[in-house]
Design a protein that fits this description.
- Helix 3 (46-59) crosses helix 8 (153-169), helix 8 crosses helix 9 and helix 10 packs across helix 11 (275-288).
- This protein is of the alpha/beta class and 326 residues long.
- The mean pLDDT is 93.
- It has helices spanning 3-9, 20-25, 46-59, 76-88, 102-110, 120-124, 128-139, 153-169, 185-197, 255-269, 275-288, and strands at residues 16-18, 31-36, 68-72, 91-97, 114-118, 144-145, 176-180, 202-208, 249-253, 297-302.
- Strand 7 (176-180), helix 9 (185-197) and strand 8 form a beta-alpha-beta unit.
- The protein folds into two domains: 3-42 and 158-316, 3-Layer(aba) Sandwich (Rossmann fold); 46-145, 3-Layer(aba) Sandwich (Rossmann fold), CATH 3.40.50.1100.
- A six-stranded mixed sheet has the order 1-2-10-7-8-9. It has a four-stranded parallel sheet with strand order 5-4-3-6, with helices on both faces.
- It binds pyridoxal-5'-phosphate.
- Pyridoxal-5'-phosphate is lined by residues 46, 74, 76, 180-187, 225-226, 274, 276, 303-304.
- Its cofactor is pyridoxal 5'-phosphate.
- Residues 10-304 form the Tryptophan synthase beta chain-like PALP domain.
- Belongs to the cysteine synthase/cystathionine beta-synthase family.
């Protein structure tokens, strides 16, 4: 293995952590295990996506040495791709929402990649994402568009790695998978693998609640990066990598609930997860409180660390020496 491949070898094989105190405090009837993806080399589950897409493109000769990688990203894919680009000798440039956390933008720059901020309202306009994709492609005609929303290598890497790891590490006991939907790669690939192993397994997606859905009229709503609405969205506007057939239940979560669960998790379990993980664990707790899941094993995807959202959090504005908001 050469040095460049050793970077890839660090990706994946992430541990499960049982959230015992979290479950006891809420009188939950099912066991919840967090799949802790922040331990990937560039800090999120999106390192898998980046690795899957880049390696497939290299193998198929679609990427040439030194080429520019471009994508539309909520940040984590950009960070994963930027790190991988640095390790494998590519240049990289990412178009992201202007509201993306400052830490994520700074991390992308630290790996030597460029960013282009796009107004949130542009994303939310009818057909906005398609228009931005067209712009990304036309502004970078010679670049390799990594296309995390449609490249089948995205769900495939989760089918081939995330799913088998969960199966192995629960000894096949997993009954429910809970994840957020950004591109849909995680939930679709992991869900497909696990359902093929265990047909009774249920897959649940967390979605923003009604107060947390931005609209063209209200683009400034506080949202959770990586948690997108799926129900009620026209199928042609959903990412091609989202397989609606794999999801059995959609659980709503407001942004304030997601942030509160992420804060509670840090205090109760010592696991400092990002807000999308707060949303996923909110959904996992809802399911774990239901009688039909009593005694079951729920695996929740903890996509990244809260460290990359600290500037969005009131924790940094706490009174000196105080514990901050609960
Ligand atoms: C923090 C976070 N959580 C969850 C997701 C959802 O992952 P996926 O794109 O595989 O649906 C993303 C990516 O969009 C993310 O950045």
């Amino acid at each position: 293995m050469d040095a460049q491949d050793r970077f890839g070898a660090l990706i994946g094989d992430m541990p499960l952590l049982e959230l015992r105190r979290f479950g006891e405090r809420r009188n939950l009837r099912a066991r919840i295990f967090a799949k802790v993806e922040a331990l990937n080399p560039a800090g999120s589950i999106k390192d898998r996506t980046a690795w899957g897409i880049v390696r497939a493109a290299e193998a198929e000769g679609r990427l040439v040495p030194g080429q520019l990688l471009v994508d539309l990203t909520s940040g984590n894919t950009g960070i994963g791709l930027a790190a991988l680009a640095a390790a494998r000798g590519y240049r990289a440039k990412f178009y992201l929402r202007a509201s993306t956390s400052t830490e994520k933008v700074a991390l992308i720059h630290r790996y030597g990649a460029e960013t282009v901020p796009i107004d949130d309202a542009e994303f939310l306009a009818p057909g906005g994402v398609d228009a931005i994709i067209a712009r990304v492609r036309s502004e970078n005609p010679d670049a390799f568009y990594t296309d995390q929303r449609a490249d089948p290598a995205n769900p495939r890497i989760h089918h081939d790695t995330t799913g088998p790891e969960i199966w192995r590490d629960t000894d096949g006991a997993v009954d429910v998978l809970v994840a957020a939907v950004g591109t849909g790669g995680t939930i679709s690939g992991t869900g497909r693998f696990l359902k093929a192993r265990k047909p009774g397994l249920r897959v649940a997606a967390v979605e923003p609640g009604p107060d947390s859905v931005p609209t063209p009229e209200r683009p400034q709503v506080d949202t959770v990066e990586g948690v997108h609405r799926v129900t009620g969205v026209e199928p042609r506007l959903l990412p091609a990598n989202f397989d609606a057939g794999v999801v059995d239940a959609f659980i709503p979560c407001e942004t304030r609930e997601a942030r509160a669960v992420a804060r509670a998790l840090a205090r109760e379990e010592g696991l400092f997860a990002g807000p999308s993980s707060g949303a996923v664990l909110h959904a996992a707790a809802v399911l774990a409180g239901r009688p039909e899941h009593a005694g079951q094993t729920i695996v929740a995807i903890v996509a990244d660390s809260g460290e990359r959202y600290l500037s969005q959090d009131d924790a940094i504005a706490r009174p000196r020496g105080g514990p901050g908001p609960a």
